[in-house]
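pipeline stage [seq->struct] | target=3-keto-steroid reductase/17-beta-hydroxysteroid dehydrogenase 7 | organism=Seriola lalandi dorsalis | residues=340
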Amino acid sequence: MQRVVIVTGANSGIGLALCERLLTEDSQLRLCLACRNVQRAEAARSALLTSHTNAHVDLLHLDVGSVQSVFTAAQEVKARYSRIDFLYLNAGIMPNPQVDVKAFFKGLFSRNVVNMFATAEGLLTQQDRLNSDGLQEVFATNLFGHFLLIRELEPLLCQAGHTSRIVWTSSSNARRSAFSIEDMQHRNGTEPYSSSKYASDTLSLALNRHKNNQGLFSSVICPGLVMTNLTYGILPSFFWTLIMPIMWLIRIFTNTFTLTPYNGAEALHWLFLQKSESLDPRAKYHSLTSGLGTNYTQPRKMDIDDEMSEVLYSKLLDLERVVRGEASEGNAANKLINST
């Protein structure tokens, strides 16, 4: 039976590398590139069809940071497909990153250099903003939009006698210290990216608790330190030119510097080959690359707890109800600002 796979944020970086690897693994699958930028999505599709001439690759316009775009895209998906086998939630943003340059260079030549690159703790902050729906942009794009998409696609994901999989692209930057359940949108903090990624880790646990008995399983991966458009946006280009030789040298001694999108997609691809029942819902599956360039996947326990995951799940359901009600009235923004 032809498998249906949807990948958000599939037009470049890890998402595109994953699509390439999936088509190499199974040329018969039906692959859907769900992207915000239609032109880039078309270019990605052309590139995939160049190397996989008989592949079935669809395009879907989806901006996960927009409530209406999620609703519209979900309706199109339900019209196209009768089920979904894999939903890769890969799209994400890190707007206006700011680096403490002094701390960066101090850490670059210290014993803490690997952890600094892996977590950006004490090094990286972002300036978030409200989107047109009245939600914090990073929260909406990295977490809530994907949550809404799952909810909208439940008829295709939760079917009797069929197993479906959700896979979140998380980060080693997903730190509990950056997340507050009282401020799940991270309005009052300076690390919205870290907060949103920790929230997705936490939500994955709740989804497994609520949906495994309906045949839906959720997993989380960390791609390692990968050089993508998101990464390159953190520092000026000349900085990367200066430090890349150092990073390749460090890679010999640590397995978390995957560096290329192909290597970073290792865990995403590995999960495609696993049986859902064999996976640990409390584990984050890490893409790792040895000093000799061998790629492999390793599970590591996440720092999450049941109570927080349940509260987050409940709060997201509450926000979903607000969004659905206000979207129909056309004045969501102001009430959303005061509701979460």
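stage status: PASS
auto-comment: The longest strand covers residues 216-222. The radius of gyration is 19 Å.
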